[in-house]
Amino acid sequence: MTPIEIGLWVTAGMLVMVVLGMRVAFAAGLAGVIGLVWIFWDKKDYEFAQLAWALTVGIKTAGQVPHGKVSSQALSLIPTFILIGYLAYYAGLTRALFEAAKRWIAWVPGGLAVATVFATAGFAAVSGASVATAAVFARIAIPEMLAVGYDKRFAAGVVAAAGTLASLIPPSAILVIYAIIVEQDVGMLLLAGFIPGMFSALVYTLLIVGLALTVKGFGPPVGGFTWRQRFASLPPALPIVAVVVIIIFFVYNPFGGDAWGTPTEGGAIGAFIVFVIATYRGMRWPELKDALLETAKLSVMIFSIIWGVLIYVRFLGFADLPSAFSDWITSLHYSPMMILICILLAYAVLGMFMDAIGMLLLTLPVVYPAVMALNGGEAVTAADSAFGMNGTMCAIWFGILVVKMAEFCLITPPIGLNCFVVAGVRDDISVQDVFRGVTPFFIADAVTIGLLVAFPSIVLWLPSQA
């Protein structure tokens, strides 16, 4: 049996384990170990006497992966970004941000829903976790919308959809994971996510206003705020703005010159600043303990998936499956753009059955080399490429596209994690209600993805200035 055939059998077995409900971390890790042992035993013609040797070499090879890859400095970004979000919540900064957005924006049709989108985008700029963002605003924004007559399904759908913005707007944990898997610059990818993230928020806003204008009683505006009240709402929200500015300057200096430091340093300093603010505002030990525990739980979940998938990726390298898939993709008699669109559609379908991070980690080791080959390779120039961009820019562009697809998968049934989180926070709202309420945002996401594919400059303009 050839290594590629072994790779296909093991991959099929892993997908079966995932569909049957096994955690992605364990399914990928187990598949990787079994695959490595199988390949090494195959080299010895399946001699029973050599099975112990194959087991030893396979397990040792798998064991080298977690320490070698997960000790990467870039991965330390993830817990710091998550911690910033939880500390900001316990410091009351998220409520202050929502209150400021409400007082300035709630007068427009669908105003509280629009304020939720803007406040969520602001919070996403200091928290890299979509699930945490959805959970926080389910507690803050939904009661406010229900109090003025919003349909509970739509209110829940707004929060679930807006929570996905944390996947794109830096600092984004999932963009960091993508950068590590495909070995691209973390800072450039975080920078590339800013404009598409804000663009997604704008499309959501237009959708909400359009629905409020065309459907009677859909989203009543909320007025009655004086200019004094509006300006008074700004100072409590300024700490979040300060943290956002600091993180941006550690990724990219918009005034020219070198960045202030590395994204890792920016995340650590941002977490320290929010901790000081939270302490000043009276955060007690039980709240700090909860923030640390929630950060640890979410970080462990993400790191476990990374460990398992990296073992599987090591096996794929021995099986030569990525190269075989790239050769097959480039041999197809279709335009590169058509193939790319089919890949994105496949992600939309796959996301219905897998969580976003697991989906990307399992597929990128195979799909990413194929997309780069479609464009002409990693060393290709813009003039000679299929998509009109060099290898580095293609990697960034494709990264934003697949992360946007991961956003989409966070709200699609039956797995849509953000929908389950919102329903879990609100006892009076079922997960079916959330899925119904989030349906209009499928159209908004489809429009956004189409525009990002058609106009790559939306993604690439900011990184090209760095």
UniProtKB/TrEMBL annotation:
Keywords: Cell inner membrane, Cell membrane, Membrane, Transmembrane, Transmembrane helix, Transport
Domain of life: Bacteria
Residues annotated as transmembrane: 12-41, 74-92, 112-142, 154-181, 187-215, 236-255, 267-283, 295-313, 333-350, 395-425, 437-462
UniProt keyword annotation of Transport present: yes
Coiled-coil regions listed: none
Domain TRAP C4-dicarboxylate transport system permease DctM subunit: 13-457
Recorded topology in the membrane: Multi-pass membrane protein
Compartments, as annotated in UniProt: Cell inner membrane
Main localization, broad class: membrane
Cellular compartments per GO CC: plasma membrane
MF-aspect GO terms: transmembrane transporter activity
Keyword Ligase: no
Function according to Swiss-Prot or TrEMBL: Part of the tripartite ATP-independent periplasmic (TRAP) transport system.
Name of protein: Sialic acid TRAP transporter permease protein SiaT
